[in-house]
Amino acid sequence: MSDKPKLNVFLCAPRGFCAGVVRAIDVVEQALRKFGAPIYVRHEIVHNRYVVEGLKRKGAIFVEELDEVPNDGAPVVFSAHGVPKSVPDEAARRKLLAIDATCPLVTKVHREAELHFRRGRKVVLVGHRGHIEVVGTMGQLPEGAVVLVEKPADVAALPFVPNEPLAYVTQTTLSMDDMAEVVTALREKYPQIIEPHRQDICYATTNRQQAVKQIAAKVDAFIVVGSPNSSNSQRLREVAERNGCRRAQLVPRASDIDWSLLEGIASVGVTAGASAPEVLVEEILDALAEQFELILETVTTATEDVSFPLPRELRGRVA
Question: What sign does the dihedral 119-121-122-127 (CA atoms) show?
Fold first, then answer.
């Protein structure tokens, strides 16, 4: 008989790795198998320190810019978040073997922005300033062709005249609620604005946020497993708070848990951002089990069966 307090743990499903992250990690691992170490990766392949450190041990070298990559024939991989056009252009000029691990759903946004630009429309991007995905999307078009908005107040400040040809695209990892507020403001100010044929926020972001919404109001605390620089993980914490769970925390590892937020609780929700591996969720559960007698329940709100093919440079080489 355990003398630990009981804790109801509601596990969100889906959680953790999305298809774009799985593909990006596979790209690095398959490139290491095909070409041997080292290979270079521009920026963190996905925003998770545990994943990055594991790939480093296998022979991946992470750099921030291409000028850190030597001209020795080793491949360079572009991260899942996408890159400005200037990056592959520089790689081609230097004759580097570049492998693009950009998530296909981010590439979809890039193509939409390019199409609107070719059709003479100004492009409004809904996203977070400075995020690497936003930098990549804005870098698909000439400087000044894309205008970034983060909140409704930014929409109010837009200088476009009412009949100006406009379209909008969005960062793929936004909060659905935050995006809806900005999009509503855009529609009200510019009723003729062209919208994406299908929403740009990716299926994995949407599904993980919906699962958190399902649980947040009925738990005393929420733990989101993910890295602080992961946009979709930060949004999950915000969604939990916005939907009634004030004691929500984002933790990279079990050692980062703020136990003061778990004092006196009887229930907790647990999820993981799209770049956080399941092993880290298990690590969190193990840490909770040291303090509590766990009663686990999985809450499933969607089933995911999405997969993306590897870049052509690596096809046919899957181990």
Answer: negative
Q: Which of 29, 44, 112, 133 is catalytic?
A: 133
Q: What is the CATH number of domain 6-17+203-300?
A: 3.40.1010.20
> Residues 81, 106: contact at Cβ < 8 Å?
yes
Measured distance CA(118)–CA(112) in Å, rounded: 10
Residue closest to 132 by CA, chosen among 62, 185, 54: 62
Pick the CATH number of 19-103 from 3.40.309.10, 3.40.50.11270, 3.30.420.300, 3.40.630.30: 3.40.50.11270
- Alpha-carbon span 60 to 309, nearest angstrom: 21
> What are the tens digits of pLDDT across the range 144-164?
999 999 999 999 999 999 889
Q: Give the whole-angstrom CA distance, residue 239 versus residue 212.
A: 7
Tens of pLDDT, residues 226-278: 999 999 999 999 999 999 999 999 999 999 999 999 999 999 999 999 999 99
The pTM (predicted TM-score) of the whole model is: 0.92
Q: Is 133 a catalytic residue?
A: yes
Burial 258-291 (b: 16+ CB within 10 A, else e): eeebbeeeebbbbbbbbbbbeebbebbbebbeee
Q: Which of 62-71, 106-115, 133-142, 199-208 has the lowest mean pLDDT?
A: 199-208
